[in-house]
Amino acid sequence: MFSPAPLESLTAFCIGHAHDAQAGTGCTVVVAPEGAACGVDVRGGGPATRETDLLRPENMIEAVHAVVLSGGSAFGLEASCGVMDALAERGIGFSLGDACVPIVVGACLFDLLVGAPAHPDKAMGRLAAENALAARAGGGTGAPLAQGNVGAGCGATVGKLGAPERAMKSGFGWACLRAGDVVAAALVAVNALGCVRDGDGTWVAGVRDGAGKVMDPLAALAASPLAAAAAGAGDVANAAAGAAGPCENTTIGVVLTNAQLTKAQATKVSSTVHDAYARAIKPVHTQNDGDTVFTFASGDAPAATDVVAMLATEAMQQAIVSGVRHAEAAFGLPAARDVA
Amino acid sequence: MFSPAPLESLTAFCIGHAHDAQAGTGCTVVVAPEGAACGVDVRGGGPATRETDLLRPENMIEAVHAVVLSGGSAFGLEASCGVMDALAERGIGFSLGDACVPIVVGACLFDLLVGAPAHPDKAMGRLAAENALAARAGGGTGAPLAQGNVGAGCGATVGKLGAPERAMKSGFGWACLRAGDVVAAALVAVNALGCVRDGDGTWVAGVRDGAGKVMDPLAALAASPLAAAAAGAGDVANAAAGAAGPCENTTIGVVLTNAQLTKAQATKVSSTVHDAYARAIKPVHTQNDGDTVFTFASGDAPAATDVVAMLATEAMQQAIVSGVRHAEAAFGLPAARDVA
Fold it and tell me: Which of A2, A218, A310 sits opposite B2 (nearest CB)?
C-alpha cells in the first residue's frame, strides 16, 4: 500500500541545508513559498523551539512559510531569524498592510559538545533558505537531498546513555512514501540519548560495547550511571541528570505532505509520528531529549488523517534509519557503516 | 537492570476486577486508600475519560484515590460512580469538612459490538472496588491478579483494520518490574485497531489472513477499506471512518509505582509510556483509538523520572503482550493461543 516516491513530487516545498562541518553544526530549512498548514507535537523533556504557540489549532495563523531544524541548542534559534530575512526580501510571508512577516517555526538539537563551540547563526539560516529556494528554481533537477553529516544532522550523535566516548555519529535522513495520491516525506536529524534500530529490530547505532559493537539499550542502561542511581548508590536525581553525557539530545523532524490537513489534523499527525521515534529509537522522549515533530501540509490531496499519519509514521521510521546509515565518522566517533 | 517483581510489593495499591463474561464487558479498579499522585496522557483520537482535568499539574488535587479502567465506551464512565460510593462509605477521599469526596479518574474502551449490549454500571464499579479492597484485606495472599478475558479486558479485541470477523480476542494483562528500590507495574486492557507484536517483533494477534495467521499490519492495511480510500476510490474521509469496523477501539492502561513523582512527573511518565504502545501495537494512536495511560505513584522511593519512565515503558510493553497471550477465544473470535 505504501510505495517509495520522489521527494520532488512534493512541489509545494523546497529544502536546503547549510552547515559547518568542522564546527559540527548546521541547519535544514523547508520553505513553503505559498504557505502551508502546520502542526507540531513536542514530546521530549528538554525542547528548544520557536513559534510553536501560533501552531496551536485555536490560534489565528493558518499558513506557515518555513520550518527550520537546527543544531546549536537554543542558540540555534538564531538561524530562523536569517530565514525570516531571506523570505521577507522575496515577499514570502504573512501580509499586514505593507509589512510582510514570514511565519517561521523551528526546533533545535544539542550538538554543542562536538566540534567547535559554534551554532547556526543568521547567516547560516539565510544560506539554507537560499539553498532551498535555489533548489526550487532549479526545478528539482539537481542531486537528491543530501543525507548524513549535513544540515541539522551535521553534529548529531546517538547512544549517549553510557560514556560519551562510546556514542556514535548520527546524521540527517529522509524518506518519502506514497499511498495513492497522498505523498508524505519525513526529514529528521537524529540526535538521541538512545540507540537506533532498523525495521527488522537490529540495533544499527548507539552505545558501543568493549568490542565496538552496538549494544541493546537495556544492556547499555545497565552499565550506565542511571543503573547505579536506580540501585540506590548515590543521589538518584543528580546521577540521572549527569548520566546523559551531553546533557541534552533531541531528535527533530518534519513531515511534508501534499494532503489536505487542518492545523488540528497536522497536530494529530505530528503526535502519531512520534510512534516512529518510539519504534526506531530506544529509549526516547526522555527528560534529556527535546524530541519534536512538525507536520507541514500543502493541502493538494484529500486524505483521511489516519492514512496520512500511518504513511508519515512509516516514512519517519525509515528516515531515522536512513540518517544513521548515511552518517560518517567524525569528532572521534564512528558511524553505523563503521561497525557493521 | 530491570528484573521481575511481585505486584504485591506495591503495597500502596489494591486492584480488583469485575465483569460480565457473557455481555463481554467489565472494569478494573486500582484503589490507593491513602491517595497517590497521578498523571495522565491521552494520545488517541477518540478517548472517553473522566476527571482528567484535575490531573493537570497546575490544578489543585494532589492525591487521587482510584483509577478505573472500564469497557462500555463512554457509558462505562458510570462504573466510576459506583467506585466513588464504595470509597466514600469507607472514608476514603478528599475531606472537605464533613464531606468526603473520593477522587476517581478513569478511561473507557469500546466493546459494545461484542457480546450483549451492556456496559459496566454503578454496581459493577462498586464490586470491582470491593474486590480490590478485599484483596488488600487478604494481605496479598490470594491468587495473582487475573489476566485475559477479565475486568476491563473482558470484551477487548484487536486487529480491526480489516473485516470485523478477522479480528482477534484480546484481554487484560499486567507486568511488574524492579530497578533497585523502584518498582513499576503496568496494567492494561488491549483493545486496538492495530496488531500486537511481542518483544522479538513477532505478530501475535491482530488481523488474520485467509489461512488464519496473524498478518503484518501493513499487509492488513493494504487489504483494508483504508487502502481503497487512499487509492482514490471513493470518499476518503468516509471510507477511513468506516474502515475500523467497530468504530472506536482504545487501549487503556495504568502504571503503578512506588516512586516519588510529582503530578507533573507522573504526567511525563504517562507520556513516555505511550512508547510501549507504539512498540507493541501497530498502528496505534489513530483517530479510532482513545489510547490513554495513567501513572499512579505512591511516593515511597526516590527516583529519577527517566528511570521510572524506562522501567514503566518496559513493563507496559510486556503487559500488552501478556494481555493478548492470556486472552481466550470468545464472541466468535480466536485468541493468540489459538493461532500459534
Answer: A218
Residue B312 sits at the chain A interface (C-beta within 8 Å): no
Phi and psi torsions of A228, nearest 5° = -60, -40
Per-residue pLDDT of chain A (340 residues; tens, 9 = 90+): 899 999 999 999 999 999 999 999 999 999 999 999 999 999 988 899 999 999 999 898 999 999 999 999 999 999 999 999 999 999 999 988 888 999 999 999 999 989 998 999 999 999 999 999 998 887 766 789 999 999 999 999 999 988 888 999 999 999 999 999 999 999 999 999 999 999 999 999 999 998 999 999 999 888 877 776 665 544 444 444 444 444 578 999 999 999 999 999 999 999 999 999 999 999 999 988 999 999 999 999 999 999 999 999 999 999 999 999 999 999 999 999 999 6
Which residue of chain A is at minimal alpha-carbon distance from B306?
A286
ipTM value for the complex: 0.84
Chain B positions in Cβ-Cβ contact with residue A310 (cut-off 8 Å): 221, 283, 286
Report long-range pairs for A4-8 (Cβ below 8 Å, ≥24 apart).
Answer: A4/A175, A4/A176, A4/A177, A4/A178, A5/A176, A5/A177, A5/A178, A5/A183, A5/A185, A6/A176, A7/A144, A7/A145, A7/A174, A7/A176, A7/A185, A8/A140
Determine whether the interchain pair A179/B314 forms a contact, defined as Cβ–Cβ distance below 8 Å.
no
**DSSP H stretches of helix in chain A:** 78-89, 122-137, 217-222, 225-230, 236-242, 263-280, 305-326, 336-339
Within a 10 A sphere around the Cβ of A76, how many other Cβ atoms? 31
Q: Do A268 and B218 touch (CB under 8 A)?
A: no
| Chain A contact present for B262, CB below 8 A | no
Instruction: Give the predicted TM-score (pTM) of the model.
Output: 0.90
Distance (Å) from the alpha carbon of A226 to chain B's nearest alpha carbon: 7
Residues comprising chain B, all counted = 340
Please report, in angstroms and rounded to a whole number, the separation of the first and last CA atoms in chain B.
31
